[in-house]
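Per your request, structure below.
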Protein backbone atom coordinates (compact mmCIF):
# COMPACT_ATOMS: atom_id res chain seq x y z
CA UNK A 1 0.00 0.00 0.00
CA UNK A 2 2.92 2.31 0.69
CA UNK A 3 4.79 1.45 -2.49
CA UNK A 4 1.83 2.20 -4.73
CA UNK A 5 1.30 5.56 -3.01
CA UNK A 6 4.85 6.85 -2.52
CA UNK A 7 7.76 6.78 -4.93
CA UNK A 8 10.64 4.94 -3.31
CA UNK A 9 13.96 3.56 -4.49
CA UNK A 10 17.32 2.23 -3.32
CA UNK A 11 19.01 5.31 -4.75
CA UNK A 12 17.47 7.54 -2.06
CA UNK A 13 20.16 6.32 0.35
CA UNK A 14 22.81 8.04 -1.76
CA UNK A 15 20.84 11.31 -1.78
CA UNK A 16 20.69 11.21 2.01
CA UNK A 17 24.44 10.61 2.27
CA UNK A 18 25.21 13.46 -0.16
CA UNK A 19 22.86 15.77 1.76
CA UNK A 20 24.71 14.97 4.99
CA UNK A 21 28.01 16.02 3.40
CA UNK A 22 26.73 19.37 2.16
CA UNK A 23 27.12 22.27 4.64
CA UNK A 24 23.67 23.16 5.94
CA UNK A 25 22.21 19.90 4.64
CA UNK A 26 20.73 19.10 8.04
CA UNK A 27 17.99 21.66 7.31
CA UNK A 28 16.60 19.21 4.74
CA UNK A 29 16.54 16.18 7.03
CA UNK A 30 13.50 15.42 9.17
CA UNK A 31 14.80 13.88 12.41
CA UNK A 32 13.63 10.36 13.17
CA UNK A 33 11.51 9.82 16.25
CA UNK A 34 10.27 6.80 18.14
CA UNK A 35 7.26 8.77 19.34
CA UNK A 36 4.13 8.16 17.27
CA UNK A 37 2.29 11.29 18.40
CA UNK A 38 0.15 13.35 16.04
CA UNK A 39 0.58 16.53 18.07
CA UNK A 40 -0.85 18.78 15.36
CA UNK A 41 -3.97 16.67 14.81
CA UNK A 42 -3.25 16.08 11.12
CA UNK A 43 -4.95 12.68 11.00
CA UNK A 44 -8.11 14.07 12.56
CA UNK A 45 -8.27 17.10 10.25
CA UNK A 46 -7.46 15.42 6.95
CA UNK A 47 -8.18 12.30 4.93
CA UNK A 48 -4.50 11.45 4.56
CA UNK A 49 -4.83 7.67 4.33
CA UNK A 50 -3.41 4.81 2.31
CA UNK A 51 -6.43 3.84 0.21
CA UNK A 52 -7.66 0.31 -0.42
CA UNK A 53 -8.13 -0.96 -3.95
CA UNK A 54 -11.67 -2.05 -4.93
CA UNK A 55 -10.47 -5.66 -5.16
CA UNK A 56 -9.13 -5.45 -1.61
CA UNK A 57 -12.42 -4.09 -0.29
CA UNK A 58 -14.26 -6.89 -2.07
CA UNK A 59 -11.93 -9.62 -0.76
CA UNK A 60 -12.26 -8.43 2.84
CA UNK A 61 -16.04 -8.12 2.64
CA UNK A 62 -16.33 -11.59 1.09
CA UNK A 63 -14.21 -12.98 3.96
CA UNK A 64 -16.69 -11.53 6.43
CA UNK A 65 -19.74 -12.68 4.46
CA UNK A 66 -18.47 -16.26 4.49
CA UNK A 67 -18.86 -16.07 8.27
CA UNK A 68 -22.43 -14.78 8.15
CA UNK A 69 -21.79 -11.06 8.22
CA UNK A 70 -24.20 -8.86 6.25
CA UNK A 71 -22.93 -5.71 4.57
CA UNK A 72 -23.51 -2.70 6.77
CA UNK A 73 -23.48 -4.56 10.07
CA UNK A 74 -21.11 -2.83 12.53
CA UNK A 75 -18.16 -4.68 13.98
CA UNK A 76 -15.69 -3.98 16.76
CA UNK A 77 -12.06 -5.07 16.77
CA UNK A 78 -10.56 -6.32 20.03
CA UNK A 79 -6.89 -7.13 20.58
CA UNK A 80 -5.48 -8.45 23.85
CA UNK A 81 -1.77 -8.91 24.37
CA UNK A 82 -0.78 -12.19 26.03
CA UNK A 83 2.32 -14.35 26.44
CA UNK A 84 1.89 -16.02 23.04
CA UNK A 85 3.35 -12.91 21.41
CA UNK A 86 6.71 -13.52 23.07
CA UNK A 87 7.06 -16.82 21.26
CA UNK A 88 5.77 -15.70 17.88
CA UNK A 89 7.98 -16.02 14.80
CA UNK A 90 7.55 -12.32 14.03
CA UNK A 91 9.01 -11.35 17.38
CA UNK A 92 11.91 -13.79 17.03
CA UNK A 93 12.74 -12.17 13.71
CA UNK A 94 12.45 -8.68 15.18
CA UNK A 95 14.61 -9.54 18.18
CA UNK A 96 17.25 -11.38 16.16
CA UNK A 97 16.26 -14.71 17.65
CA UNK A 98 16.16 -13.50 21.27
CA UNK A 99 12.69 -13.88 22.79
CA UNK A 100 13.65 -12.84 26.31
CA UNK A 101 11.25 -9.93 26.38
CA UNK A 102 9.66 -10.74 29.72
CA UNK A 103 10.68 -7.32 31.01
CA UNK A 104 7.30 -6.04 29.81
CA UNK A 105 5.08 -8.99 30.63
CA UNK A 106 3.20 -6.61 32.96
CA UNK A 107 1.36 -5.62 29.77
CA UNK A 108 -0.20 -9.07 29.31
CA UNK A 109 -3.90 -9.66 29.92
CA UNK A 110 -6.22 -12.67 30.11
CA UNK A 111 -8.70 -12.91 27.23
CA UNK A 112 -11.23 -14.56 29.57
CA UNK A 113 -12.04 -11.24 31.25
CA UNK A 114 -13.41 -9.84 27.98
CA UNK A 115 -16.29 -12.32 27.65
CA UNK A 116 -18.92 -10.09 29.28
CA UNK A 117 -17.88 -7.13 27.15
CA UNK A 118 -18.28 -9.21 23.98
CA UNK A 119 -21.77 -10.34 25.02
CA UNK A 120 -22.79 -6.74 25.75
CA UNK A 121 -21.56 -5.57 22.35
CA UNK A 122 -23.39 -8.37 20.55
CA UNK A 123 -26.61 -7.42 22.37
CA UNK A 124 -26.14 -3.91 20.95
CA UNK A 125 -25.90 -5.24 17.40
CA UNK A 126 -22.12 -5.43 16.93
CA UNK A 127 -19.94 -8.20 15.65
CA UNK A 128 -16.78 -8.75 17.72
CA UNK A 129 -13.54 -9.65 15.95
CA UNK A 130 -10.72 -10.70 18.25
CA UNK A 131 -7.58 -9.62 16.37
CA UNK A 132 -3.96 -10.78 16.37
CA UNK A 133 -1.76 -13.31 14.60
CA UNK A 134 -0.83 -15.20 17.79
CA UNK A 135 -2.85 -15.92 20.92
CA UNK A 136 -2.36 -18.21 23.89
CA UNK A 137 -5.94 -19.46 24.11
CA UNK A 138 -9.26 -19.13 22.26
CA UNK A 139 -11.90 -16.55 23.03
CA UNK A 140 -14.00 -17.64 26.05
CA UNK A 141 -17.36 -17.01 24.35
CA UNK A 142 -18.66 -18.92 21.35
CA UNK A 143 -21.22 -17.00 19.29
CA UNK A 144 -21.99 -16.66 15.55
CA UNK A 145 -21.12 -12.94 15.78
CA UNK A 146 -17.69 -13.49 17.33
CA UNK A 147 -14.71 -14.16 15.03
CA UNK A 148 -11.65 -15.50 16.84
CA UNK A 149 -9.23 -14.35 14.18
CA UNK A 150 -5.97 -15.81 15.61
CA UNK A 151 -7.49 -19.28 15.36
CA UNK A 152 -8.93 -19.17 11.82
CA UNK A 153 -7.00 -20.83 9.03
CA UNK A 154 -7.49 -18.15 6.38
CA UNK A 155 -5.83 -15.20 8.13
CA UNK A 156 -4.42 -12.66 5.72
CA UNK A 157 -2.21 -9.59 6.10
CA UNK A 158 -4.80 -7.55 4.19
CA UNK A 159 -7.41 -8.34 6.84
CA UNK A 160 -5.15 -7.10 9.64
CA UNK A 161 -5.20 -3.69 8.01
CA UNK A 162 -8.71 -3.66 6.50
CA UNK A 163 -10.57 -4.75 9.63
CA UNK A 164 -8.65 -2.25 11.78
CA UNK A 165 -9.43 0.52 9.29
CA UNK A 166 -13.17 -0.23 8.97
CA UNK A 167 -14.28 -1.19 12.48
CA UNK A 168 -16.80 0.95 14.36
CA UNK A 169 -14.23 1.28 17.12
CA UNK A 170 -11.16 -0.55 18.36
CA UNK A 171 -10.62 -2.02 21.84
CA UNK A 172 -7.00 -2.65 22.76
CA UNK A 173 -4.80 -3.40 25.75
CA UNK A 174 -2.30 -1.07 24.03
CA UNK A 175 -0.06 -2.70 21.43
CA UNK A 176 1.08 -2.07 17.91
CA UNK A 177 -1.98 -3.05 15.87
CA UNK A 178 -4.19 -0.39 17.41
CA UNK A 179 -2.08 2.25 15.65
CA UNK A 180 -3.66 1.12 12.38
CA UNK A 181 -7.02 2.07 13.84
CA UNK A 182 -5.55 5.42 14.91
CA UNK A 183 -4.17 6.03 11.41
CA UNK A 184 -7.59 5.43 9.87
CA UNK A 185 -9.46 7.63 12.34
CA UNK A 186 -11.22 4.90 14.31
CA UNK A 187 -12.32 5.51 17.89
CA UNK A 188 -10.09 3.79 20.41
CA UNK A 189 -10.73 2.28 23.85
CA UNK A 190 -7.56 1.39 25.75
CA UNK A 191 -8.33 -1.04 28.56
CA UNK A 192 -6.36 -3.02 31.14
CA UNK A 193 -3.16 -1.34 30.02
CA UNK A 194 0.12 -0.06 31.44
CA UNK A 195 2.13 2.15 31.65
CA UNK A 196 -0.57 4.61 32.69
CA UNK A 197 1.32 7.57 31.22
CA UNK A 198 1.20 6.03 27.72
CA UNK A 199 -2.50 6.73 27.22
CA UNK A 200 -3.13 8.15 23.74
CA UNK A 201 -4.44 11.65 24.39
CA UNK A 202 -3.90 13.01 20.87
CA UNK A 203 -6.87 11.09 19.41
CA UNK A 204 -10.53 10.57 20.39
CA UNK A 205 -10.13 7.78 22.95
CA UNK A 206 -10.98 6.54 26.41
CA UNK A 207 -8.68 4.76 28.83
CA UNK A 208 -9.35 2.30 31.64
CA UNK A 209 -5.90 1.16 32.69
CA UNK A 210 -4.87 -1.66 34.99
CA UNK A 211 -5.28 -0.74 38.64
CA UNK A 212 -2.25 -1.07 40.87
CA UNK A 213 -2.18 -1.77 44.60
CA UNK A 214 0.58 -1.17 47.10
CA UNK A 215 2.02 -4.53 48.06
CA UNK A 216 2.29 -3.72 51.77
CA UNK A 217 -1.14 -2.16 52.34
CA UNK A 218 -3.28 -3.47 49.48
CA UNK A 219 -4.45 0.10 48.90
CA UNK A 220 -5.13 1.20 45.32
CA UNK A 221 -2.73 3.79 43.91
CA UNK A 222 -4.21 7.20 43.22
CA UNK A 223 -4.04 8.70 39.72
CA UNK A 224 -1.02 10.81 40.74
CA UNK A 225 0.70 7.75 42.19
CA UNK A 226 -0.06 5.80 39.01
CA UNK A 227 1.66 8.53 36.98
CA UNK A 228 4.59 8.64 39.38
CA UNK A 229 4.96 4.86 39.10
CA UNK A 230 4.61 4.61 35.34
CA UNK A 231 7.37 2.16 34.49
CA UNK A 232 8.59 0.38 31.36
CA UNK A 233 9.82 -2.83 32.98
CA UNK A 234 8.18 -5.48 35.14
CA UNK A 235 10.98 -5.44 37.72
CA UNK A 236 10.50 -1.69 38.20
CA UNK A 237 6.93 -2.30 39.34
CA UNK A 238 8.21 -4.99 41.67
CA UNK A 239 10.87 -2.74 43.20
CA UNK A 240 8.44 0.16 43.64
CA UNK A 241 6.19 -2.00 45.79
CA UNK A 242 3.17 -1.65 43.51
Amino acid sequence: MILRTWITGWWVWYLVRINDLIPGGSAHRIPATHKCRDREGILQRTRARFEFMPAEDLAAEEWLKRRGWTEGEPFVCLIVRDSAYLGSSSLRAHAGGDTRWSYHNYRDSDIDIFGDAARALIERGYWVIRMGQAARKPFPVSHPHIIDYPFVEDRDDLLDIWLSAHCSFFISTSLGLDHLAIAYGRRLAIVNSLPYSDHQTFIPSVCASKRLRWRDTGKLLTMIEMLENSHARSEQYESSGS
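The chain has two domains: 72-210, 211-242.

Regards,
D.
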